[in-house]
């Protein structure tokens, strides 16, 4: 399932489309085991970029939003989608969210710090991938290409 998600996101990114609200609830599974990525309501297309080449709209679901989106200083849509995919992978493997709190301000602080415990029982490869996808620094965060190379 996760590989299909990355393939779908890669396709979108190659077409200049950035989802910006990826979450497990927006990834549907059909009767043949194929995923469908849904809810492109806040997607970004090339016309949405400012002169600096970045997106500036704060959007997304709180538990899945990347720290750079919260910083409100402009962000790369691809890196932000990868963060959300990292949250999805974490949920698929553990059954819980990596960043969660009933207080939105506390949740945002956890996300910005990238402070999430990774269960010891996950495989070393899964731990590494999650850490690299949930890197608070979008410049050093794993990319679609590096994820596909690691499959």
TrEMBL record:
The family database entries (Pfam families) matched by this protein are listed as: Pkinase
The record's section on PROSITE patterns has: PROTEIN_KINASE_DOM, PROTEIN_KINASE_ST
Q: Which GO terms describe its molecular function?
A: ATP binding; protein serine/threonine kinase activity
The Protein kinase domain covers: 1-151
Q: Which InterPro entries match?
A: Kinase-like_dom_sf (IPR011009), Prot_kinase_dom (IPR000719), Ser/Thr_kinase_AS (IPR008271)
Q: Which UniProt keywords apply?
A: ATP-binding, Kinase, Nucleotide-binding, Serine/threonine-protein kinase, Transferase
Q: Which residues form a coiled coil?
A: none
The entry assigns this protein to a family as follows: Belongs to the protein kinase superfamily. CAMK Ser/Thr protein kinase family. SNF1 subfamily.
**What the protein does?**
CIPK serine-threonine protein kinases interact with CBL proteins. Binding of a CBL protein to the regulatory NAF domain of CIPK protein lead to the activation of the kinase in a calcium-dependent manner.
Protein name as annotated: Protein kinase domain-containing protein
